[in-house]
């Protein structure tokens, strides 16, 4: 019991948001008469909200520079999708060549944003607001009133495709189940290694019953999730891409010098500078990275819709920012994690999906998401003040 209380207290915000996700899922499960947890809808939920997770991952890094955000990500998503449509469909260029061009353009935009912020000390919200206007206008210029549709199959595969079943399962996608089992084994081995390292240095560890129960819960969730996907068409290709992005960025923030530098800048920028950290370089890299992730999100969303228009990307920055703060970002205390952003993105994704199934109008959906964001921030403020 003491182990459970200690864990809940240590990550109260994230654990609270996990409970919120569970409550929201159960609510929509009842209201939609079981639709939201059907295998087909779970696969759709992953594909529909992949762009939110990608953007939230980059946005969390921006917030950790001291509460800054990137307001240009929605426009960059639209601009990337427009370039893909113009070059692939309008000009007939090779898909992979176009993707390389789009990433090259994204890097240049990142240099523009990061350079203006780090080199010329332009406030991030001003620099990215300017980019938002520039590249929203650029989207109109590129498209010239044309909405490109029917993208090449290899491009659509990035979001709408599923990994093949190498074992020929008829009623169940065996490859997906094996990947789920492998994920469980990896999670258990990593936690066992972490526990052994703590005991080696005589640090406090949780009791064996709690440790076993925690592993059983995690593995149970993973196996249920992969079974649901396997019962439909298998694991979406985009899920693997999103999982790699989340794992890589989580590793960078938790285990590398670059991640520690970012947290140091968030905690106290002046102190970080005095300790030898190049805070301008940190800002530059963060906003360069955000532009690249925005391009990836734009590609994913465009492939999902199989079309591009000037309306793509509207409100994307709001979803990404909301996901981060719902997931526990708090620049005042220098806190915020990639896993927290993932949890926040799950809240946004489930809300989007559930309300869409219910036929709720988009204006009401925005009101609900705004209310959830406000509640999350108020909860964080109360928690920090110890009320």
From TrEMBL:
Keywords: Cell inner membrane, Cell membrane, Membrane, Sugar transport, Transmembrane, Transmembrane helix, Transport. It comes from the Bacteria. InterPro entries: ABC_transp_permease. It comes from Enterocloster lavalensis. It is a multi-pass membrane protein. Pfam families: BPD_transp_2 (PF02653). Part of the binding-protein-dependent transport system for D-xylose. Probably responsible for the translocation of the substrate across the membrane. The chain crosses the membrane at residues 42-64, 96-121, 171-190, 211-229, 235-253, 282-300, 320-351. The keyword Transmembrane helix applies. One of its GO terms (molecular function) is transmembrane transporter activity. Coiled coil: none annotated. The lineage of its organism: Bacteria, Bacillati, Bacillota, Clostridia, Lachnospirales. This is Xylose transport system permease protein XylH. It is found in: Cell membrane. The keyword Endoplasmic reticulum does not apply. GO terms for cellular component: plasma membrane.
